[in-house]
Design brief:
Number of helices: 9
Structural class: mainly alpha
Order of helices and strands: HHHHHHHHH
Mean pLDDT: 89
Low-confidence stretches: none
Number of strands: 0
Shape: elongated
Helix content: over 70%
Largest sheet: none
Oligomer: single chain
Distance between the termini: 52 Å
Radius of gyration: 19 Å
Length: 199
C-alpha cells in the first residue's frame, strides 16, 4: 500500500469511529463512513471489504501498538519475575488503551453486534492470553503453561479490558497512577502467587 493509500485507509477508520461514537455500530452504514471521511464508496472498497473488515483493521492497529510498546520498552525476551516488570506491562496496556480509547469503544460495540468481528476479536484476545500465560509459566518456573496459568491469564486479560473500558472514559486528569497500581497489585498476585491447591 502506498503512503497515500495508508492515509486514505486511516482517514476512513477515523471517520468510522467518529460515526460509531455518535450513532452506534449497528446503525452505522458504509455511506455514513464515506460521507464523514469525504471519500467515495469506491475508495472505501479499495481498502476494506465491509464494515467488519474495517474494524478488524482497527483491532489489529491496537494489538500492534500494544506489542510494539512492550517490545520497545521491555525487549522481546523480557520476563515478569517481579511486580516492577508486571507494572510495566500493565502500564503499557493502560497507556495504549488511553491512546486508542475511541477505537476501543468501536471495537467493543462491534464485538457485540457482529458475530464475524467478535470471532476476530476473540482471536486477538487469545493471543494476549497466551502471552500472559507464557510469562506466568516462566515466573512460576514451569516448563510450559498449565491450566492454572491459562485460566489466570484469561482472567487478567478480561480484567484489564473491562476495567479500562469502564474507568478510562470518566477518568479525571492525573488519576492514572492509582488505577495502574491497583491493576498491577491484582495482576502480580495472580501471576506470582499460585493457589495452594495447585502446589
Amino acid at each position: 500500500m502506498t503512503a497515500k493509500g495508508r492515509r486514505s485507509a486511516q482517514d476512513l477508520k477515523a471517520a468510522a469511529l467518529r460515526v460509531i461514537a455518535r450513532q452506534g455500530y449497528l446503525a452505522t452504514k458504509i455511506t455514513d463512513i464515506t460521507a464523514e471521511a469525504g471519500k467515495s464508496a469506491g475508495v472505501f472498497y479499495r481498502y476494506f471489504a465491509d464494515k467488519d473488515d474495517l474494524m478488524r483493521s482497527v483491532a489489529e492497529d491496537f494489538a500492534t501498538a500494544l506489542h510494539d510498546r512492550v517490545s520497545t520498552e521491555l525487549g522481546h525476551r523480557h520476563k515478569l519475575h517481579d511486580e516492577r516488570h508486571i507494572e510495566q506491562h500493565v502500564r503499557a496496556y493502560w497507556d495504549i488503551y488511553r491512546t486508542f480509547q475511541g477505537q476501543m469503544i468501536g471495537i467493543y460495540q462491534a464485538s457485540l453486534m457482529s458475530t464475524e468481528f467478535s470471532e476476530h476479536w476473540k482471536h486477538l484476545q487469545e493471543r494476549h492470553v497466551a502471552t500472559w500465560s507464557a510469562h506466568m509459566a516462566e515466573a512460576r518456573h514451569l516448563t510450559a503453561a498449565d491450566e492454572d496459568c491459562t485460566r489466570t491469564a484469561h482472567a487478567l486479560v478480561c480484567m484489564l479490558e473491562h476495567y479500562c473500558r469502564t474507568t478510562v472514559p470518566t477518568l479525571e486528569a492525573g488519576d492514572d497512577e492509582v488505577h495502574i497500581k491497583t491493576l498491577t497489585r491484582l495482576a502480580a498476585h495472580g501471576i506470582l502467587h499460585t493457589d495452594a491447591s495447585h502446589e
